[in-house]
Design a protein that fits this description.
Number of strands: 10
CATH topology of one domain: Immunoglobulin-like
CATH architecture of one domain: Sandwich
Mean pLDDT: 74
CATH class of one domain: Mainly Beta
CATH superfamily of one domain: Carboxypeptidase-like, regulatory domain
Structural class: alpha+beta
Length: about 260
Amino acid sequence: MVKHYALNFAVLLACLAAVNGAKGQLAISGTVYDISKKNPIEAVSVLTTSGRGTITDSVGRYSIVVRDSDSIYFSFLNKPTPKFAVRNIQTPDNFDISIMVKGTELPNVTVKQKNYTLDSLENRSTYAKVFNFKKPGLSTTMNPPAGNFGVGLDLDELISIFQFRKNKRTLAFQKRLLQQEQENFVDHRYSKSLVRKLTGLSGANLDSFMVAFRPTYEITLLLNDLEFGHMIQIAYQKYRASHRASNGQLRLNRE
């Protein structure tokens, strides 16, 4: 009996520690649009006064953990919005915002892939459970069964902890989906039509250039269209220089 009470007391302490650790924190999520409230904007910085930050994805979505005492604000092209106190946000799971974007700040080169945004949204919707899956851990409920007092354990979460194989497969699938989403985003911006237009390359030369100078997802997400086009042109200069050097060495070898 003593051991039983000791075990319950230890579990209670662990639960209280978990509650205290999460106390005062919550997640804010939503979508950032342009001033028309119709077009989502990617690569917008989402920041808090406590120092946390994230960026919007390819469909303008974001999610960030904040403190009750925090304020949240957004920054696009180094132009921050006013700060919004977390305590005043009525819908933390759907905190959408529109930001002012001037016409001169919009990319001059626009490369659109048919239904790219719709495909991304559909993919996120189809695999929503996988994208939103988090590795289970002990959580608590403040509403234990009638007749019991104190903090209760979330039994569903406890059961999920021991579904090792299922959790491992789901996390692996989630990783593949995220990688695929990132690759599709790079393909969408780093298209053959854009590279051909900026470099004049075609055929095998175009293919070899695109493989050799394919940008990472992080770079593709960070740069606007003007900066992205400039990056491709710089890469093309390097490509031409390397080919001139290779052809010169070939002539020397033949002589």
